[in-house]
Amino acid sequence: MAMMNALHKDLVKDPDDTELRCIVLSAEGKIWSAGHNLKELQANDSAYRNEVFQKITDIILDIQKLPVPVISKVNGMAAAAGCQLVASCDIIVASDKSTFSTPGASVGVFCNTPGVAIGRVMSRPKSAYMLMTGLPITSQEAYVAGLVTKVVAEKDLDHTIDEITRAIKSKSRAVISLGKQFYYEQLNLPLKDAYKCGQSKMMENLELDDCKEGLTSFIEKRHPVWKHKA
Fold first, then answer.
1. Which of 5, 39, 158, 194 places its Cα 20 to 30 Å from the Cα of 107?
2. Where in the cell is it found (predicted)?
3. pLDDT tens-digit map of 171-228
4. Topology, domain 2-169
5. CB 151 within 8 A of CB 141
């Protein structure tokens, strides 16, 4: 719980600061995240248990609400709620030594909430396999199944993250923020409604100062000078 509180506090700190362009979640050691502390859940305290599960839900919902991309930089094992956290980030880059699992059923706690996250990004047969067997999958298997954006050699992980963050930083924060917000909104809409709302969002995008600057710079064959403000 202390780890989740610290993570949540840092995630939502100064979201409107235009100097904030993206967030990278990383870890040291062989374990990226082992998920919840099962000893905390053992005590017969329903209120506290609910608080634990609500906290990870709040973190994940806020990741989607943040105006900048959130990147998982995984170099190790991500299990249970740790795998849930990975699956909830916008971009997931994993080393070839990483593994992913939802092993809760092995100790009598089915990974119900992690299943919500992985079931929305992975194929049904693969996510069901993870949830019902508890067996880990490799980073390459996770990539094929849609859980991971990119798999790289461990030695190339830092360089790849730098490459991705540079690409994000070269864009207008205002444009990325608008686009990220609508991207997640439209996922829950029927196709026809999504296109209708997308058309309105395109019109809104075209009114941004940074959009006008981007189009002008393209025509003038120069680099844009972003203001990063909506």
1. 5
2. Mitochondrion
3. 999 999 999 999 999 999 999 999 999 999 999 999 999 999 999 999 999 999 999 9
4. 2-enoyl-CoA Hydratase; Chain A, domain 1 (3.90.226)
5. no
